[in-house]
């Protein structure tokens, strides 16, 4: 028989441990130094890809080959993913998840921590886009360009970073429950499908989408440490949150 604390769908009571599952998150021991080092390496890799033509040529060959193999069903799926994991779609998904946790599950701690990890892991990709400024694949070199997107925001993919950051946040929320395994499986399958769709559409290079997994993980790793250090202390200073659900006192 499953204990009440492991029943994810049911509304949490004020004393339910599930309502404060995200109060303390798993974190790296060196939660500042490791993400910082990872960020430096990611930027270095991105700049190498930008300034070494042979690397971009190898990348472009994959996009060009896929552009010959477009089919109506695959294109439909890729276009659907393009909309769902767009910036507007990302805002809606994260907001909906946080509002559900806050108003239905009555868990301000879970709502804010989940939103912080998801949004932070996603938005961190924008910093790498600015620092690397890699041009998107040339749509004129594709046999069948589906969504021509010029610009210098190719590295990494925001769509894939969003899917990866959401996957990390949902897994942290589901950990220790019967939903942990489904969350882990979907957390791998969905970002990979999003990554494949971006290359299929010809709007990103394979190395762009690969880097997106790393940027999302880097941002999430930093934010989990930041949350553990300051999160509960800040929430405890917002009185009305206690009316919505339990807010544990910060540890000394």
Automatic annotation (TrEMBL):
Sequence ranges assigned to domain Phosphatidic acid phosphatase type 2/haloperoxidase in this UniProt record: 111-224
Superkingdom as given in the UniProt entry: Bacteria
Membrane topology: Multi-pass membrane protein
Protein name: Undecaprenyl-diphosphatase
GO MF, one example: undecaprenyl-diphosphatase activity
Pfam families, per database record: PAP2
Residues in the signal sequence: none
SUPFAM superfamilies for the chain: Acid phosphatase/Vanadium-dependent haloperoxidase
Keywords annotated in UniProt: Cell membrane, Hydrolase, Membrane, Transmembrane, Transmembrane helix
Enzyme class, spelled out: hydrolase
CDD domains: PAP2_like_2
Organism of origin: Pseudarthrobacter enclensis
Location in or out of the cell: Cell membrane
Membrane spanning stretches: 31-52, 72-102, 109-134, 154-174, 183-203, 209-227
EC number of this enzyme: 3.6.1.27
InterPro entries xref list: PAP2/HPO (IPR000326), PAP2/HPO_sf (IPR036938)
